[in-house]
Amino acid sequence: MKKLFILGVVLAVFASANIFAGGAKDTQPLVVWVNPLIGSTVFTAADNGLGAAAKEYGFRLKITGRSVIDVAGYNQSIQDAIIEKPIAIAICPYAYEAFAPTLADARAKGIKIININMDSPENTRSAYVGTDNAVYGKLAADYIAKQKNGKANVLIMQAGLTFPNQVEQRDAFVAACAEKYPDVKIVLNDEDQADSAIAVQKFKDIFRANPTIDTVLCLDSIAGVAAGIATKEMDTVGKITILAIDDNEDTLQYIQDGVIWGTMAQNFYKAGRIAGELAVKAARGDKVPSAVDAGTVLITKENITTYSEEFYK
Length: 313
Known about the structure:
The chain is an alpha/beta fold.
């Protein structure tokens, strides 16, 4: 009887360890990625990164989420993911306070939470993977100051004025300018609700009302092209320096066309791949880093054809 008991324990431990070692697709552990903006270029890159991690680390990946920014709908998607009983859920907590009760429920059920691109309090998740937002803001200040020879009148455009990652980026940019570049002035800070039509109209209205603006810092991925469209329609291409964010195809095309000066691309593919890795490791009890910077790169005409060689490895 004692030998049978010991054998049973050994088999149970082996089974628990082996669940993370690959095997048949239907026996692999499940990780759910709740994509906040299905179809967007950057979050599709995160999809692909997580897909690569699924193959490497032997887990099933389910991608769900919303195609528009929808707090209630996104929260429902997280709740639906919990029902699937995954080992981990990857999310982008852009409205953390609204999601907090649902995420607490997930953690109480033993589900690991991995944040991508936006973070929440450290004790509410297993890990964060994405941009170091304070570093991002400081680099943006350096790039703009260099391009504008230390003098600029800046419009900062965000998707939402309360989105935590964009707030951190903006605040770091403002602080760096105040400390190192006193002639880089912030004229206005506004939001476009991640809606291209709203953004184009806002840019045109703002440019007309504030003719001293000569630089735009974009902190959401649709803003760069929207600002470019506004300058084209107002015949001010080249008069306003646009620093976009992310490497969307239309943003890259506008850089090649000379409408946008540059973009700071966040590495969403790498963020997704690392998030998948950390999901598996956290679920099996390994110690994982609290935060991982996936990195950024400044893309201009000079490196637009070569940046991806290292970026998407």
